[in-house]
Design a protein that fits this description.
This protein is α+β, with helices and mostly antiparallel strands. It has two domains: 193 residues, Alpha-Beta Plaits (2-Layer Sandwich); 34 residues, no CATH class. The chain contains twelve helices and six strands. The strands form two sheets. The protein has a four-stranded antiparallel β-sheet. It starts with a strand and ends with a helix. It binds flavin-adenine dinucleotide.
Length: 263
Amino acid sequence: MAKRGVMEVSLIFPEAETIRKYYRGLIYLAARTCYSEKTPQQIWDEFITDKTPPERVMKLIEHVIESGHHSTIEHINFTFAISGVSRALSHQLVRHRIGVAFDQQSQRYVKYKEPQYVTPPSIEANPDALREFERLRDMSEEVYHRFLEQGIPAEDARFIFPNAVTTNLIMTVNLRQLMHMAGLRLCTLAQWEIRQLFKLIRKEVMAADPYFGRLLVPKCVPLGYCDEKRNEDEHCRIRPHKNSVFRVWELYKRGALVERETS
Ligand SMILES: Cc1cc2nc3c(=O)[nH]c(=O)nc-3n(C[C@H](O)[C@H](O)[C@H](O)COP(=O)(O)OP(=O)(O)OC[C@H]3O[C@@H](n4cnc5c(N)ncnc54)[C@H](O)[C@@H]3O)c2cc1C
């Protein structure tokens, strides 16, 4: 019986204490350097010796985040260990190119004794589909092992694996890009497995520091509206669709015009 892959995410670095001690300070340092005559060394020294009031630090951080001055949040990074996710997921994840680094378990160098697999819930819930899925999965595994026995290199034998086979990755990402990725991948229209991954990423960051965890939200939250064409019917109600917002805006403008003309 093939082993079931279990998705796990751990925030490896930094520890909560390091985040608490330095991360707000790093963002403050970057932002304050832009607006101050003081040197960054002076600004950091004041921060690290607790001479800068924490409210002042937070006020500036909130200002730069809200106003999109996001280069300032590229100075802080998070490293995650990710395991038990499907190759279907990892292929989507590594499409992100900017501000993020990946290392992934190699199917060239690893000869799997017991490959593990992710079963989609829709297949799990359908006994006929599940039987088919398991039959093909087990067959591919048998052929994989036969190929290895025949001296076919692992890098070629792996061609028989389905997308469902699991993989492990290390991902280091700066806060700006993590917010961007979470914005796309926590959207209810994102694929279920990668959405689950980002829920776990959010949980890890939240446990380390709720302020940073709360920044990881679907893109419609900071935007104020949903821009996904597939949600024009507003079946997802986290935020109104932009068509509704523009319709209301048109009505408001017309009303304001009439009011101006009749007053
Ligand atoms: C719901 C969903 C469905 C998807 N479906 C498909 C699909 O069917 N087929 C498919 O191929 N992909 C698909 N993707 C992947 C998607 O097209 C992107 O490749 C992926 O989300 C990476 O995000 P990004 O483009 O924002 O790039 P990132 O690498 O995360 O870059 C971050 C930001 O930096 C900027 N940037 C990065 N690189 C450049 C550049 N070269 N030039 C200019 N600006 C740049 C952009 O503003 C970008 O948003 C899907 C993604 C989602 C979330």
